[in-house]
């Protein structure tokens, strides 16, 4: 995938280990978010050895004396699958993490019952210094912890973004490419940041990439499905949408999810006029606006289904004649509006001369929009259609039934009388 971009230099990481000696002595990390000692204790796995709980509980309580660490404590595992290094990483006990990693380097590879490494827990809690050390020690020992996933398919970067730890996420972004790695829900860290409307982090992910990674080397697969553009649209974040389209690739407009829905279709569906306009202007319009989902629905069908008149007007400027825009039932946009009871859209289409071919157009079962309105039992929609001089009451479907026949069969006395009067008034 090719795209162009201006390059921003990634910000130099703020000093990370001021007071490193202090960390060794006391094992306490400066963290982004200050928690009370009581909150920290709530995060401690109560099933651990009492000495381990005691040690972890003293991390943020300088008035308590720590018990001496014993090597056998490092191999104890709680019912949640946590080792001592997990607890130390989670509460920011950098001194203990360093000690364990130096004595038993493979401890950094330990997973708990949820598949979390110590790095995952440090990233989840926003412990920047601990994250930095674990990344450094893993690189020294040729462990690629940055791509390791837990049972939800999340990397350390996923959980840092998920828990809004900005500085930890920035650090991880610069050190690996898991920003493109989807979890079990198809979400990448990049799409998660877009969903959250985190413009600053998006810029770091796109512009703060290592120099060796050119834009044309960006992997293709992560843009499919839960793409960053789709996430930005759902978050209605204009700035992120523009960054993605201009700096990554306009081809994302045509990227489909598992339902075959494109970002353009999504924008039309949620009535985001500005975003739809931006995407159409970026890609030139026609190809993306005519792309169908698995039900053969185009963006204009979805907009009609929701009654979004301004979106329909915009999309039709880039589409074939409306009579040729048919879904798998051969429904035009009037059929769709009638079926979904979008009376505002029905009135709009009936009032436009250029849409006259749609009014009595048949679907694959021979039903006109009027047939559908009667069949569904929508009195107001029937009234709107039947009041138009251009509606043909005598059209019969593939079963040989007119709309009035269907009304009679459905025992809709009032509708039958109304249709009879309309047919007499507008023969």
Automatic annotation (TrEMBL):
The keyword Cytoplasm does not apply. Keywords: ANK repeat, Repeat. InterPro entries: Ankyrin_rpt, Ankyrin_rpt-contain_sf. PROSITE patterns: ANK_REP_REGION (PS50297), ANK_REPEAT (PS50088). It comes from the Eukaryota. GO terms for cellular component: cytoplasm. ANK repeats lie at residues 114-136, 152-173, 295-318, 365-385. Residues 1-29 are annotated as: Disordered. This is Uncharacterized protein. It comes from Malus baccata.
């Amino acid at each position: 995938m090719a795209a162009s971009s201006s390059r921003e230099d990634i910000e130099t990481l703020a000093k990370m280990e001021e007071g490193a000696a202090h960390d060794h002595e006391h094992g306490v990390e400066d963290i982004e978010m200050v928690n009370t000692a009581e909150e920290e204790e709530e995060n401690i796995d109560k099933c651990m050895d009492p000495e381990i709980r005691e040690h972890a509980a003293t991390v943020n309580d300088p008035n308590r004396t720590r018990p001496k660490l014993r090597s056998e404590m490092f191999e104890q595992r709680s019912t949640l699958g946590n080792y001592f290094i997990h607890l130390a990483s989670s509460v920011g006990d950098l001194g203990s993490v360093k000690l364990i990693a130096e004595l038993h380097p493979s401890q950094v590879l330990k997973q708990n019952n949820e598949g979390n490494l110590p790095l995952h827990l440090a990233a989840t809690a926003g412990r920047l210094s601990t994250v930095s050390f674990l990344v450094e020690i893993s690189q020294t020992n040729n462990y690629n912890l940055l791509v390791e996933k837990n049972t939800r398919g999340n990397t350390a970067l996923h959980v840092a973004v998920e828990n809004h730890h900005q500085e930890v996420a920035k650090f991880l972004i610069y050190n690996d490419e898991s920003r493109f790695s989807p979890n079990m829900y198809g979400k990448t860290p990049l799409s998660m940041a877009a969903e959250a409307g985190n413009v600053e982090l998006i810029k770091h992910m796109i512009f703060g990439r290592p120099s060796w990674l050119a834009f044309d080397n960006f992997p293709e697969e992560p843009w499919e499905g839960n793409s960053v553009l789709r996430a930005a649209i759902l978050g209605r974040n204009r700035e992120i949408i523009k960054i993605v389209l201009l700096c990554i690739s306009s081809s994302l407009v045509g990227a489909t999810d598992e339902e075959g829905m494109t970002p353009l279709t999504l924008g039309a569906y949620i009535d985001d006029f500005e975003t739809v306009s931006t995407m159409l202007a970026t890609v030139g319009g026609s190809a993306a606006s005519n792309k169908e989902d698995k039900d053969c629905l185009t963006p204009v069908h979805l907009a009609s289904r929701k009654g979004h008149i301004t979106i329909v007007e915009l999309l039709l400027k880039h589409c074939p004649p409306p009579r040729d825009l048919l879904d798998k039932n051969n429904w035009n946009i009037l059929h769709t509006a009638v079926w979904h009871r979008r009376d505002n859209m029905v009135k709009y289409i009936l009032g436009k001369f250029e849409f006259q071919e749609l009014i009595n157009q048949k679907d694959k079962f021979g039903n006109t929009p009027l047939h559908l309105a009667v069949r569904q039992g929508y009195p107001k929609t029937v009234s709107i259609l039947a009041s138009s001089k251009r509606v043909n009451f005598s059209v019969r479907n593939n079963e040989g039934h007119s709309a009035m026949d269907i009304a009679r069969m459905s025992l809709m006395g009032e509708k039958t009388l109304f249709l009879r009067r309309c047919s007499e008034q507008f023969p």
